[in-house]
Design brief:
The complex is a heterodimer of chains A (about 280) and B (about 270).
Chain A lengths: L9 H26 L12 H7 L2 H32 L6 H13 L2 H12 L4 H8 L13 H29 L2 H9 L4 H29 L3 H11 L3 H11 L3 H24 L5
Helix pairs in contact in A: 1-12, 2-12, 3-7, 3-9, 3-11, 4-7, 5-10, 7-9, 7-10, 8-9, 9-12, 10-11, 11-12
Chain B lengths: L1 H29 L3 H4 L14 H8 L1 H34 L1 H16 L2 H15 L8 H24 L3 H9 L4 H12 L1 H17 L2 H6 L6 H10 L3 H15 L1 H11 L9
Classes of the chains: A mainly alpha (about 280), B mainly alpha (about 270).
């Protein structure tokens, strides 16, 4: 039977297409218009919103945060996810149960996870209690603007999403042919040599995919820095835009900052598509 | 060899502790009195069991409303996302020519930063009365947008697993194109439909950023949980968290097998 492509078939995609046009394409265009409209005179096009945010030192902190935080979290997630996957590929009692347990943090809704992390890293929280039990002095984990605050945000983010990286690496590990590893073993290669010279290079495509997909998610990070440290504690572009919008009611500046983030994400996405990771 | 095994088991126990700790602490705080959550040093095991937090939650009108709002928005999102993506996913699975543009649109929808859509959507919704809507209709539209790529990818995979020859056979037996879809294909993709429905429900139920920006006084559960925790009610916040967890934990049982079979590879969240 011939499967033809009639023009009417586009009708099947029409409702979805119209929805995306109205709620994806139109808002994007509207955000650009908002960003380039002067809030006082309504003149268009105008760079007054852009001028406003580039003269705000918080914006530059947010931009830096938006570069440093994703890189640090993805690096940590990759190391932890890879380590877990390699350990989990070994045989030991309770391995299947542990695989289920490892996904639990990611199964918790983000906001639920963050709410309990506030209790963990509060001055009188569980982290400091653990330190006290070990005889160490308490630590201020989330003082605004300190490097440790960024580190705490990174650790919490990694704690939450390492399971995703773990699952991606685990799937890739399972797909690797055993023969190469066995051949190397017969040739006398040690465990570390086999990991670094055979397993790791073979995993490179999967790791690359994980880095870019997770990286894009991390660049949009919003709830984690906001809930843990507040807008000024560990600023990123998302929370900066939210701050402009909700605290100053400045739609234009918020749209300008958010569009800047969108531009940054688009550049990374284009890089990703060129490497054909998604296909 | 046995020393390596001991190290592995110890490592596994450490990882398991770290992964279960957040869940355990939520449950502990939810079922102990508020004053125990403030104790110093904090208790690791519950000392005093109580249902007070849940009772307060039930009698706080804003929290009760937030629960129904979250549930309603999630239910509506499941309906709208499935209706919109079902025909398109079938088309994409059967006709490669349609797959390419749809796939590209899904990538944009999935990767575009939430805040860059939430700000213009909030401004647009203000002008049409959907901002802070009492039934969360504006939030519903935003969540549908968020859910579409998830539903599309799951359903397209489902349709691809059904051989097109089955539809052809039904057509040869005299069924219309529509009939072949309804009576042959649709029953076969029911598992994917259920998986997509559950995932979409969770996307909406867990979502925080749109919920924070699009609703100011008629809030759903995630922003309420944020404010409870920010304003220093760890026990009550944990009770809300425990309620939010009930459907969320279902993801383990849906997601784990789905991920293992590769259904969701690349769809992420």
């Amino acid at each position: 039977m011939r499967r033809t492509f009639g023009t009417w078939m586009w009708l099947l995609a029409a409702p979805l297409g119209l929805f995306l046009l109205a709620f994806l394409a139109y808002p994007i265009a509207y955000a650009i218009k908002l960003a380039l409209t002067d809030p006082l005179t309504q003149a268009f096009p105008s760079v007054s919103n852009v001028r406003l945010i580039v003269h705000d030192s918080l914006f530059w902190q947010a931009l830096w945060g938006n570069i440093i935080l994703p890189i640090a979290s993805v690096a940590l997630e990759l190391a932890a996810g890879l380590g877990l996957a390699v350990v989990m590929a070994a045989r030991f009692p309770g391995r299947r149960l542990l695989r289920l347990v490892v996904i639990v943090p990611f199964a918790l809704p983000e906001i639920v996870f963050l709410a309990i992390m506030r209790s963990v890293f509060a001055p009188r929280g569980y982290a400091n209690a653990a330190l006290a039990a070990a005889g160490a002095p308490p630590v201020e984990w989330l003082l605004p603007g300190r490097a440790l605050t960024f580190l705490t945000v990174v650790v919490v983010d990694a704690w939450h999403v390492t399971p995703v990286v773990f699952l991606m690496v685990l799937a890739a590990l399972a797909a690797l042919p055993n023969e190469i590893d066995e051949a190397a073993q017969l040739d006398g290669a040690g465990m570390l040599a086999r990991f670094f010279c055979i397993t790791l290079p073979l995993l490179r495509p999967a790791l690359f995919a994980a880095v870019l997909l997770r990286g894009l998610d991390a660049m949009r990070m919003f709830a984690t820095p906001l809930v843990l440290a507040g807008v000024e504690g560990a600023p990123v572009l998302s929370t900066y835009a939210y701050h402009q919008w909700s605290d100053y009611g400045n739609d234009g500046a918020a749209a300008a900052a958010a569009s800047g983030l969108a531009l940054l994400c688009t550049l990374v996405t284009l890089l990703l598509l060129r490497r054909r990771v998604l296909t | 060899m046995s020393r390596r095994r001991t190290t592995l088991v110890l490592l596994a126990l450490g990882v398991a502790t770290l992964d279960l700790l957040p869940l355990a602490l939520i449950l502990k705080q939810a079922f102990t009195p508020e004053r125990e959550s403030f104790a110093w040093p904090p208790t690791w095991w519950p000392h005093e069991f109580t249902l007070d937090n849940f009772r307060t939650l039930g009698t706080t009108i804003e929290l009760e409303r937030g629960f129904w709002l979250s549930l309603g928005v999630a239910g509506l999102t499941v309906t709208s996302a499935l209706i919109l993506t079902l025909p398109a996913a079938w088309l994409a699975a059967r006709r490669p020519r349609a797959d390419r543009p749809l796939d590209a649109a899904m990538i944009v929808a999935r990767l575009f930063p939430t805040i860059a859509l939430a700000v213009p959507l909030a401004a647009l919704f203000v002008s049409v009365g959907l901002y802070n809507h009492p039934a969360g209709l504006g939030l519903w539209l935003a969540h549908t947008l968020l859910a579409i790529p998830v539903a599309f990818l799951v359903l397209r995979t489902g349709f691809r697993d059904v051989p097109a020859e089955l539809e052809d056979a039904a057509r040869l037996d005299g069924a219309s194109a529509c009939g072949a879809f309804l009576w042959v294909t649709l029953p076969l993709v029911r598992p994917s439909l259920a998986a997509a429905g559950i995932l979409v429900f969770l996307v909406s139920w867990d979502e925080f950023a749109y919920a924070l920006l699009l609703q100011v006084t008629n809030r759903s559960l995630p922003p309420l949980l944020y404010y409870l925790s920010a304003f220093g009610y760890p026990g009550l916040a944990s009770a809300v968290a425990a309620i939010m967890l009930v459907p969320a934990l279902a993801i383990i049982f849906v997601l784990e097998p789905a991920l293992r079979s590769g259904t969701l590879s690349g769809s992420g969240r």
